[in-house]
Amino acid sequence: MTKRAIILACAFGLALAGCEKRQEAPEPVRPVLSTVVEPARSGSAVVVGTVEPRYKTELGFRVLDRLIARAVNVGDLVEEGQVVAAADPTDLELAVRNANAELARSRAQLTNAAATEVRQRTLITTDATTKATLDNAEQGRAAAEAAVARAQSGLAKAREQLGYAQLKADFAGVVTAVGAEVGQVVSPGQSVVTVARPDIREAVIDIGPDFPVPLRIGLPFTVSLQLLPSVKVDGEIREIAPEADQATRMRRVRIALKDPPPTYRLGSTITASLRGEQPSILRVPESAVLTRDGETFVWVVEIPNGTVSLRKIELSRDEGGAHVTGGLAAGTHVVIAGIHSLKQGQRVRVEQESNP
Question: pLDDT (tens digit, 9 = 90+) per residue, 345-355?
Fold first, then answer.
């Protein structure tokens, strides 16, 4: 072998060795952002609300009229059937007079029609009149009777509407708000006085999407007065608003109180906290969820060896985002950014961790 051939062979061998070294070079460790999935402690959930009546009604007139009297103010106690406000009855009284006059006229016409029918029946026996004339007399009497019935209904309606000039309480309670002043013209249905029953009180709170446990009817709470924290009352969720507020994403919840003391006055500020240990929600950020073929996955960081693996999980979504119902345990490290470019078994380096 010539010297030139030996040099070319050595160069070729070195080139092959360099290629093998480049091919065997390890893949660089990729930095990722992750979070440790941990359930929120139910004991830390404290919500502020107010004491409100379970039953209250906004009283308003049924007719358009001018308010001439309002006998109650905020804080006054009222009895069932008590007049709380009055409207100008002039127009309604005139309507009653008109209905009375219409009824009198209809009755006079009925008397005349009945007498005419009697005369025609007497004349028909002597052939002094025709059958057609008698039939007309009978129809006139029937029409007069119908007119009397219509006039009686009109009078009853006018008297009923006259009663609308007085606004009466449907039940005994306390006045919590007034919506009109004397001299103001009020529309039908406009709230004039709001009356509430103080005997049945409940706590009303607004719960956000980050609440640590799922909301359900009967979820137990401990309610305490904000000014008197030592005064505590047990309660359970009685009602949950079907939809959250579009602006605040808060859901209105009403808690039935068990034998609240008199210090739990309407409008008092309360603090509600979960009673006892409740199953918490395990939430994951939406940015960590990977969807493929209708199934959901997350990239889990295997801490001992620093690699990632794709894990199938079961999710349920609500206003607060996604919470895990299966396939993932608390304390797991989950990748929350760049999930679409990872590979199974890829080595990673955790750059930053945060709570979901």
Answer: 888 877 665 55
346 and 295 in a common domain:
yes
Domain residue limits at 318: 30-40+281-354
CATH number for the domain spanning 289: value is 2.40.420.20
Same domain for 246 and 220, yes or no, is yes
292 half-sphere exposure, CB direction, 13 A CA radius: 10
pTM assigned to the model: 0.63
The rounded distance, in Å, linking the Cα atoms of 157 and 100 is: 11
Residue at which a domain ends, from 274, 299, 327 = 274
Mean pLDDT computed over every residue of the chain: 85
| Domain end among 227, 245, 274 | 274
Q: Which residue has the tokens 């961790």?
A: 353
In tens, the pLDDT along 219-231 reads: 999 999 998 999 9
Exposure string for 184-200, b = 16+ CB within 10 A, e = fewer: eebeeeeebbbbbbbee
In this structure, the answer to whether residues 84 and 98 fall within a common structural domain is no
Distance CA 34, CA 126 (A): 114
Alpha carbon 136 to its chain's center: 63
pLDDT of residue 133 exceeding 80: yes
Write out pLDDT tens, residues 273-296. Answer: 988 776 667 777 778 888 888 888
**Is 175 in a helix, a strand, or coil?**
strand
The CATH number covering residue 101 comes to: 1.10.287
155 and 95, same structural domain?
yes
State phi, psi for 78 to the nearest 5 degrees. -125, 155
- Residues in contact with 326: Cβ distance below 8 Å, sequence separation at least 6, in sequence order: 313, 314
Contacts of 94 (CB under 8 A, 6+ apart): none
Residue 238's nearest CA partner among 217, 252, 259 is 217
The tally of domains found in the chain comes to 4
Range of lowest pLDDT (1-10, 255-264, 292-301): 1-10
Examine residue 314 and state whether it is found in any structural domain, yes or no: yes
Q: At what angle do helices 90-125 and 131-163 cross, to 10 degrees?
A: 160
Residue 319 has pLDDT above 60, yes or no: no
